[in-house]
Design a protein that fits this description.
The chain is of the alpha/beta class and 357 residues long. It contains 15 helices and 13 strands. The chain is 40% helix and 16% strand. The strands form 3 sheets. It has an 8-stranded parallel beta sheet with strand order 3-4-5-6-7-8-9-10, with helices on both faces. The chain binds zinc ion (ZN).
Length: 357
């Protein structure tokens, strides 16, 4: 039976099943809503990234697009016996046919009872965005700085230091505000969430566009404790700001987030298919190292084979980190259910009721 193929170079093995049985089977709620997952039919990739671009950053080598049918199959494998739904969006990159990817995912979401975000280009007219938002199973947008026109083909980070308003224009925000639609915001800048411009712009969005359901992805890219400590307190008081906890493997970051924001403002997310990667993450101050068992270019400093043999999926390591944080704070089962599906379901209901212009 096991191993079975998952995605890209990854398999689901006896090690993963044993990890699930030991840590997750009795703890995870029966319903799982993954609020941050990338689904993009591979045939819509129009530009295969250069080797230089792939090797620039670990995600480049790990990120291969997954179509809806494969995404559904993988979620059944990694969440055995669970009712699964998700908020999906394509790869926010101009290497993809953004229109075709959006259209195909919209159909897949209707078919499967999932929801989607529109990958939105900042150069779109509001009419064009409005047409997309009016379609069924659509909660809002996924903007990203790599969608700003005039990219460098060898770098995904040309616009890393952009203002949020350069890739999420004010006209789009005004439309999203009127519709009560959601934004999953990947904050720009090397300084991450705590960068003063990010904090100021987020507060400005909340003030001027209060109807927008603002969800900050990956806890604002705070993957390490020092980054989380710099940022979280500054957004603690605004109960209208949500976060997804995808791609965060550090239990101390999850604990600080739960303590600062409470369990009602955090949405579970995987950031799959990237987090089907096997291995573990280690932290040193504001940096981290991804250990994995596949000979990627970035994976120069390997651990011994007997350690690599114990690796499970990064997404399972993330779930264990969340569990440890919930245990430390003695969260109730209602609070854990809010994290894994209730908060997302509340947002879906609120977007459905949003004023449609
Ligand atoms: Zn993502």
């Amino acid at each position: 039976m096991l191993p079975v193929a998952l995605h890209h170079v990854w398999k689901y093995t006896e090690v993963d099943r044993a990890f699930w049985d030991r840590h997750l089977e009795d703890w995870l709620p029966k319903r799982i809503f993954d609020a941050h997952t990338h689904v993009n039919e591979p045939r819509f990739r129009i530009e295969v990234p250069s080797e230089q671009k792939r090797r620039q950053y670990w995600v480049g080598e790990v990120s291969e697009p997954i179509g809806a049918a494969d995404a559904a199959r993988c979620s059944t494998t990694v969440f055995p016996g669970r009712e699964f739904a998700c908020l999906a969006f394509g790869h926010p990159s101009l290497d993809y046919d953004v229109d075709a990817s959006n259209a195909s995912l919209q159909e897949a979401c209707v078919e499967r009872g999932w929801y989607r975000l529109v990958v939105s280009r900042p150069d779109w007219s509001t009419e064009r965005l409005a047409e997309q938002l009016a379609m069924p199973n659509t909660l809002g947008v996924k903007p990203y700085y790599a969608l700003i026109p005039g990219q460098d083909p060898d770098s995904r980070d040309k616009y890393l230091e952009a203002s949020i308003f350069e890739f999420l224009p004010r006209e789009h925000l005004a439309l999203l505000d009127r519709r009560g639609a959601a934004v999953v915001l990947h904050v720009p800048k090397a300084g991450r969430l705590a960068h003063p411009d990010n904090l100021a712009e987020i507060k400005q969005i909340r003030r001027e566009y209060p109807g927008v359901v603002l969800i900050i992805a990956h806890f604002g890219r705070c993957y390490t404790v020092p980054h989380a400590q710099q940022a979280f307190g500054q957004l603690a008081d605004d109960e209208g700001i949500y976060f997804d906890n995808s791609a965060v493997l550090n239990p101390d970051v999850h604990r600080l987030a739960l303590r600062t924001f409470g369990s009602e403002r955090i949405l579970y997310g995987t950031d799959n298919p990237i987090f089907y990667m096997r291995g573990r993450r280690q932290w040193h101050g504001t940096t981290y190292v991804n250990r994995t068992s596949y000979p990627f270019y970035f994976n120069k400093d390997r651990e011994p084979p007997e350690i690599e043999a114990t690796y499970t999926l990064f997404m399972y390591e993330a779930l264990l980190a969340i569990k440890q944080a919930c245990d430390d704070l003695a969260l109730t089962s209602d609070q854990i259910e809010a994290l894994f599906h209730g908060n997302a379901e509340r947002i879906i209901a609120s977007v459905g009721e949003g004023k449609v212009s």
